[in-house]
Structure formats: C-alpha cells, structure tokens
Design goal:
The complex is a heterodimer of chains A (311) and B (433).
Chain A: H1 14-57, E1 60-61, E2 69-70, H2 74-81, H3 83-114, H4 121-133, H5 136-147, H6 153-160, H7 173-201, H8 205-213, H9 218-246, H10 250-255, H11 267-277, H12 281-310
Antiparallel strand pairs in A: 1-2
Chain B: H1 2-22, E1 40-47, H2 53-65, E2 69-76, H3 81-90, E3 97-100, H4 103-111, H5 119-124, E4 135-136, E5 139-140, E6 143-155, H6 156-162, H7 172-188, H8 212-219, H9 233-244, H10 251-256, H11 261-266, E7 272-276, H12 278-288, E8 296-299, E9 311-321, H13 328-339, H14 341-348, H15 359-366, H16 375-380, E10 385-388, H17 396-411, H18 417-431
Parallel strand pairs in B: 1-2, 1-3, 9-10
Antiparallel strand pairs in B: 3-9, 4-5, 6-7, 6-8, 6-9
Helix pairs in contact in B: 2-14, 14-15, 17-18
The chains are: A mainly alpha (311), B alpha/beta (433).
C-alpha cells in the first residue's frame, strides 16, 4: 500500500535521513489509505460487518424486529436434522461438480481454438464473451424457452434426430439440474476463456518449437508444454469457479426457483428463503456459516494440492 | 474545534441511528386527531401503481374529498412487495399507510407489532367482505377495501362457434368434459386464434391455488395439513386429465414460456379461464386499449356436485396504519374512508370488487362499460360462500412452500398424485414448526 520513498529524496546527514524518511513514509501511508478508503468504507459497512455479524447471529433466534435471543447450538442441531438443508447441500455440490470441470474444459477449448492467427478471430472472441455480459434474466428466459419439453427447439431437434423420449429439462426433476448447469457453463465459459487466453500468450513460443524439434506431436505438446505452463492460470480459474459455483443463486432463482419440487434448491437460495422470506435470520445465518465452511475447506484443500504440485 | 465537531457529529449520528432502529413508540400517536384544515402529505405504500388502477382511483377520490391531504404513493415492484415492506417496517420507516397485499403478510406484520390497532374503525365499518380474516383475538390491525374471489371467465365467441352452451352450473366432471369437447370441436372446425396456435377448452393457471385452494374451499379440507392432503386428490387428477388430453396448455409449457392467463384469454387461445375477479379490471383495461376484442362473460366456479351451494375461494386486500406513521390521524381517516362507501365506489369504478358490497355499489359495478350484464354474470358475482385462499397462522408461509414444491412435481408429471400427497403430509409434519 505505502510506496517506498523515492531514492531522489535521500538527504545527506544520517539524522535528517531518518526524520525525512519517516515523515515521507507516513505521508505516503496516509495517501495510500485515503485512496482505498472510499472503497474500503463501503466494503466494511456493507460486506465485512454483515459477514462478521453472521458468526454471532448464527447462535441466536432473531426475526429482524426483535432483539436477538441467544440460543446456543439450537440452529445447528436443527441444521443437521433439516431435510431442506440436506437437499440443498446435495444440489449445491451437484451443481459445483458439474459446473466446474465442464466450464474449465469448455473455456480452455475455446481459448485454444481462438489463440491463433486467423481471420476474424476478434469477432469470435467477442462472440464467445457475449453470454457473460448478457443479463442473467434474459439468459434464463431464453434458455427456458429453448428447454421447453414440447415446443422447445432443443427437443424438436432431438426428436428430429430420432430420440423418442427427449428429457423434460427444467420441468423434469432429474433433468433440471443438468439443464441449469449447461446454461451456467454457456454463460461463464467466455469469461474464463479470456483468462486462459491471457495465460496461453505468456507461454514462450521457444518451448513449443523445441518440443516440435524433438518430435513431439500436437497432443504431446499440449500435455507437456501448454498445460504445465498454464498451471497458475488453471489454478486461479479453478478457485474462482469453485467459489462461484458454491454460491450460485441468481441463475437458479430466475430459471427454476429451486423447482420442480426441490430438485434445484441450492444453499444460497435456502439462506435467502429462511432469512429474507421467513424472517429467521438466526437459522439463515447458520446455513450461511455451513456454506462458508464448505467453501473454505474446499478452497484450502485446493491450495494445499497446488502447493504440493508446485514443490 | 474540528475534533469537537466530529465528536458531536458522531454522537448525533449514533443517536439518530438508535432512534431509527427502535422506531420510537407511538402509542400516543394513535389518538392523534385528524385536523381537516391542516395540510398533510400522506405516504401510502403500494405495489405496481401503474398496473393496479384502484390505487390511483382511491387516491384521486380521497384527495377530492379531503382537499387538505396530498397523497404520496410509495410505489414498489409487486414481486418484491412483501420483502420490501418487511424491511421498511423493521427499519422503523415512517410511511403512514401500508397496503397489505396478502393475509400472510398481514399475519407477519401484525404479530411483529408493526401495525396500529384499528379495532375501533373495524367496529364502525359496515358489512365488509373478508373483515373476519383480519381479526386476531378480538383486535383488528387492518381494514379491507377490496375482496376478490375466483370465478370462471369464458369466451362467448368460442362457445358460439363450437355450438356449446355457456358454462352455467357446471360440476367439475362436466367442466372437464366440456373443455375436452371444445378443444376437439375447435380443432375440427379449424379455429386458429393466430397462425400456428390452437384453441384450448380451458387454461389452468400454474399457481398452486388454482388446484389446491379451490379443493380446500369445496371439500372443507385443511391446507395446513391437520388431516393429510387426500382431499386434493380428485382436483389434481382432473387437472392432470385436462392437461394430458390437451384441453389446456400443459404446466411445463406455461411455466417455461411464462405464458399468462391474460395472454391465453385475451388472444382467444382458451375458451375458459378460472381466475380471480381482479381479471375483470385487466380485461376492461385491455378492451379500452383496443388490445382485445374477445367477447367474454363470467360464470361461477365449477362445483363438486350439482345442485349444491356455490362455493369458491378468494381473499380480501386491506390497508393498515404503520405503528411509526408520521400522520396517524390522517392515515386512520384514509383507512376508514377507503373501506367506506365512497372508497368502495372509487374501487368499483375500476372494475375491482370492493370489500363493501351494498346493492348500490354492486349496481354501480355492473353498470361499468364493458362488463357483461347477463344473468349468468350476476349469478357468478354472488357466490354463496367465499372461503379463504389459505388459513392464516404462524406456519402458513412454510406450509405454502412445501405445498408449492410438491404441486410442481404433480403438475410436471414427475410423481404420482397419491405418492406426492403422502409426501406432502409427511413433509409438513416433519419440517414445519
């Protein structure tokens, strides 16, 4: 944050050096703080305080009107027995397990395909990025129409290919989650493609040339040159995707709202429902803590694994 | 000097935050008299002001009757209304009058002590439809100004074209047969409302209430699940029968394409649409805007058996006074006025049924331009019994969530009716409370 004093300002005498340096450092520190203050104040007030408060509220009974009443571990006992929590936890993991690898594969493939000199590459890169900046509500409405079991283009296409009993997608409990995952992949892959593209361009072409000279074929070069060089990017993408998938909310709410039945009910939705809708902020915070722990454990595990691979 | 100012500022901020948080007690404010000469700006929270004409009609008429009052509506998105108002009230907001959209919200706000006691006004009010629903241990915290119930809207043009009689005194089985017959006949006669569309005999709105609430009203079943949910079974079976035979647009298509009853009816794609009486207001608006030329009528809801009483379901909508209201006197006056005769007339003029239904007001309603005046419509607007859509209690919201989830499973054909109803009862027993 605080930049070191510029070398030009170094005065002659040792005592003056300390004094001048110190005041310079102090000034720079204050300057640095003043730059981040507006952002930090907003972050602290709207994110940090509520997040920290969650840890306390989770042990109380509170409906936003009353004074919170300390209830010890009641909320957590209830959490363990709550069928809705079990369903939501399973669905959240299901979404993550489907969404993370598929998005990584799709965005890496896109990046590889668009990381070459061909005519109109800028256009195709933009096209691939477009879903990411499209409004989620528009995405949900249009995909829901595509998924329509009887009149939707997807099933019409499947029928014309000879599938006799195409899936019901968002109106079938066992297909709703795959349908949402597919939409999520389509929406997110453009963003991660950009990250992979940036990563690909840092790979020195000499490495590929050397591998070529040694007689490596395209696949061998991909496995032994591209992938290892991309590791930092891959790791970053993996972390971002995992966290993003665990806290998925908007896509689910506008596409299925957790339905049909509870087939796409996820944890963040349960948090919203219990807290904002039912006014049980204590229990809702307990669910939020569970989600926090889940994300924390998975992320720490991924870091540990990355460290091992790096060593 | 500077530091002192800062401290003072901080102290003031903290104090005002505290005050706002506590909201301040306003027991005294409840007795604040209404001074007809002092200019007052009354704030009223409403949903979707542009699409809910009775609000503006009420405000205009009230301001005419009380020239010293200026009403300032607080317009809130309809879908966010319950959440937004909950947040406002919890934060000590001082909006004077709160329009209470559902009984579930009413129960939430009143048990949290956010509304002023208006028992005095309720006792002085006339015969208000749905007033009982607001009673809590002899106390009232809101006054209804509007009372809706479900009827069967039908498209006279389609009935004439296929040569069927208008749907008077139907039983549910006759209704299913009729819908299927109309669908077949319309297809045979090649009636196409628009290129590539089809005329359905009826349209079942995907809402849970379209099946569950009417079942409870007509069988006397308890939707909070005290005796299981078997009473839903025949109603779900008929709903599925309609959809499987193609006599209504299927649930999955209606939800994934977000097709509304309004579109289905005003474009002539459905010959019948069971719906709440608020639909009349929407139809009148569409007609006035030249968006539809459907000639329509209103019939009573189909009944389980012929010759019995006409039973349907519905619910009142009310205004309440915020406990932290800035102008309690004017707010209470507005409540009383809106529920009274003048308010009822203003509401009726927009095609919405007011809670106060004297003969005079009914006549005014039926003489509106565009409202069908045939005998069947008159009969439909005077049901023998209007049951509440959903019993109100501390567990209502949770039960509703479970019932809605299981409703989706039945309507998408994902699980059998009997099995799902058993699950419903089991889940309500285990999860609610």
């Amino acid at each position: 944050m605080a930049a070191p004093a510029p070398p030009l300002a170094r005065p002659v005498t040792p005592s003056a050096t300390t004094y001048s340096n110190r005041s310079q450092v102090r000034r720079n520190t204050l300057l640095g703080w003043s730059f981040i203050l507006p952002n930090f104040a907003g972050f602290a007030l709207l994110t940090l305080v509520p997040v920290v408060a969650t840890f306390g509220i989770a042990f109380t009974k509170w409906n936003a009107y009353s004074t919170p009443e300390f209830t010890g571990l009641d909320n957590f006992t209830r959490l363990v027995q709550d069928d809705n929590f079990r369903v939501a936890l399973f669905n959240t993991v299901y979404y993550t397990v489907g969404h993370v690898p598929l998005t990584m594969a799709a965005s890496l493939l896109l990046a590889l395909a668009l990381n070459r000199k061909l005519r109109g590459v800028a256009f195709f890169r933009t096209a691939a990025f477009f879903p990411y900046i499209t409004s989620i509500v528009a995405v949900a409405v249009v995909w829901n129409m595509l998924y329509n079991p009887t009149q939707g283009p997807i099933n019409q296409f499947l029928l014309s290919l000879g599938f006799e009993d195409p899936p019901g997608w968002t109106s079938d409990p066992s297909w709703a989650m795959p349908a949402v995952i597919l939409t999520g992949v389509w929406k997110d892959m453009g963003y991660y493609m950009i990250l992979f593209l940036a990563g690909l361009q840092t790979i020195p072409p000499e490495l590929h040339e050397a591998a070529k000279v040694d007689g490596a074929n395209a696949f061998q070069r991909f496995r032994n040159v591209t992938l290892p060089c991309l590791r930092p990017t891959t790791f970053f993408v993996l972390i971002m995707l995992t966290i993003g998938s665990f806290k998925v909310f908007d896509l689910i709410v506008v596409m299925t709202d957790g339905g049909p039945g509870r087939s796409t009910l996820v944890l963040s939705q349960l948090i919203y429902r219990e807290g904002i809708v039912n006014g049980r902020f204590g229990y809702s915070s307990a669910v939020a803590l569970a989600l926090f722990l889940l994300v924390l454990v998975v992320t720490v595990a991924q870091y540990a694994r990355n460290k091992r691979l790096e060593a | 000097m500077k530091r002192r100012t800062l401290h003072a500022l901080a102290a003031t901020t903290a104090a005002s935050l505290l005050l706002a948080g506590c909201g301040g007690g306003s027991e005294a404010a409840q007795n604040e008299p209404f001074d007809p000469d002092e200019p007052v700006t009354l704030t009223v929270s409403v949903w979707n002001l542009a699409g809910t004409p009775e609000f503006q009609a009420l405000f205009d008429a009230y301001q005419e009757a009380r020239p010293n009052v200026t009403i300032e509506p607080v317009d809130i998105l309809a879908d966010d209304y319950p959440t937004k108002v909950t947040t406002m009230l919890a934060g000590g907001d001082s909006t004077d009058v709160i329009a209470v959209k559902s009984l579930m919200d009413y129960s939430k706000f009143s048990t949290a002590g956010q509304l002023q006691d208006v028992t005095e006004l309720a006792e002085g009010a006339g015969d208000l439809g749905g007033l009982d629903a607001y009673e809590q241990d002899g106390t009232y915290f809101a006054l209804p100004y509007r009372q809706d119930f479900w009827v069967n809207y039908y498209n006279k043009g389609i009935f004439d074209a296929v040569g069927e009689e208008y749907p008077a005194d139907l039983t549910w089985d006759e209704y299913v047969d009729l819908a299927q017959r109309i669908t077949e006949k319309a297809a045979a006669a090649g009636i196409e409302p628009a290129e590539g569309t089809k005329t359905y005999g009826t349209f079942t709105q995907p809402w849970r209430s379209a099946v569950g609430a009417i079942a409870a009203a007509q069988t006397g079943g308890d939707q909070l699940g005290s005796d299981g949910y078997e009473f839903f079974a025949p109603y779900y079976e008929r709903a599925l029968q309609l959809q499987e035979s193609g006599a209504t647009l299927d649930y999955s298509t209606a939800t994934t394409q977000q097709i509304t009853y309004r579109t289905m009816f005003t474009t002539g794609q459905a010959a019948m649409v069971p719906m709440g009486t608020w639909f009349t207001s929407a139809l009148l608006q569409s007609q006035a805007a030249g968006e539809t030329d459907v000639e329509w009528g209103i019939a009573p809801m189909p009944q389980p058996e012929a010759g019995g009483e006409t039973v349907t379901f519905g619910g009142p909508t009310a205004f309440a006074v915020n406990r932290n209201a800035e102008h309690s006197g004017a707010a209470r006056d507005f409540l009383e006025w809106a529920a009274g005769e003048e308010g009822a007339k203003a509401v009726a003029a927009t095609g919405i049924l007011p809670a106060l239904q004297t003969q005079e007001i009914k006549d005014a309603y039926l003489s509106l331009e565009g409202i069908p005046t045939d005998d069947l419509t008159r009969e439909a607007l005077a049901p023998d019994e209007v049951a509440l859509e959903m019993p109100v209690g501390p567990t209502t919201a949770q039960v509703e969530q479970v019932l809605t989830e299981e409703h989706q499973l039945i309507m998408t054909g994902s699980a059998s009716v009997d099995e799902t109803l058993e699950n419903m009862a089991e889940r309500v027993e285990n999860e609610v409370g």
